[in-house]
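User: Teach me something about this protein's shape.
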Amino acid sequence: MFAKVIQQDEKIKQKFYQKIKEKTAKERQEVEENDDSGFFAWLFGNTAVDRFDRKQHHDESKGSAGEEELENQMWLLLKSDSFVLPDYVLEVERNKFIQLDSIVVNLKGIFLIEVKTWSGSFVASDNMWKMRQGREWVRVSNPSAQHKRHVKLFKDWLWNNLRGLYSQVKEVIYPVIVLKQVDWIAADYSSIPVVSGASGFIDFILDKPKAQLSQDIVETIVEKLRTAKPYEELQPYAVHNEAKFKEGITKQGKKYVRVEGSRNEALKVAENYSKDYKTFDVHQDKTNPNVFFFYIENK
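Assistant: First, the predicted structure itself:
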């Protein structure tokens, strides 16, 4: 049996694309209003607006054929308990988006895939990528830095949308960069693994520990991604509450949530946590009157 390919809800996806289009138009207008490049830049097509337009064209036109080819290969090579989610758009915060080439979800975890249709020889690090052209090494755009941002934003999206599962899922999120065909690569200094083609990606999956997630959790994640809502349609707390909070664990192993803000804001955070956890009383920090905390336990 083959993997299951799950397309994003088309109506929601078009909403995201429309919002991205509006955001891009606004950014272009701001660039145009502040463009003081001068006559010669205008004459040679190198104004700030020209550079903005070229970058947008590059971002919009890159890689679709390579992504579809990889999607088809993954569908054939992955087992039936895997879900392939191609070309997904998520809104993490208001007007803050990530576009992921592919996501694979199975019992081993969540695999975030950045596809590059490049081939040849490469040297890769978090700070810089170089490609061999003849006898020279030429600097190219850096997918490691780009994909690190994707991973951070994807974790933020999970926190906002699947908070009750976040602690179980966050350690089994595996980013990977898939190049179409690699003759040779040195990627020891890239924190994001780099592999060659669909077969390299399959080997990357096989190397991961078995059964980190249950089938129910896998299906919950896939459905939440497929129907991912615009940010303003999330629960009011997730959108409007400005309290800063984070989880922690005491030396004795007790889980707690620390909230910066008022007692009322801390109570709202605790109320939201109570949907997925057993929560305890909210207490004020002894050293900082603007900090509150409460303990949580799994139900």
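Now, about its shape. Residues 4-232 form one domain. The chain is about 40% helix and 30% strand. If you'd like, I can walk through any region in more detail.
User: That's plenty for now, thanks!
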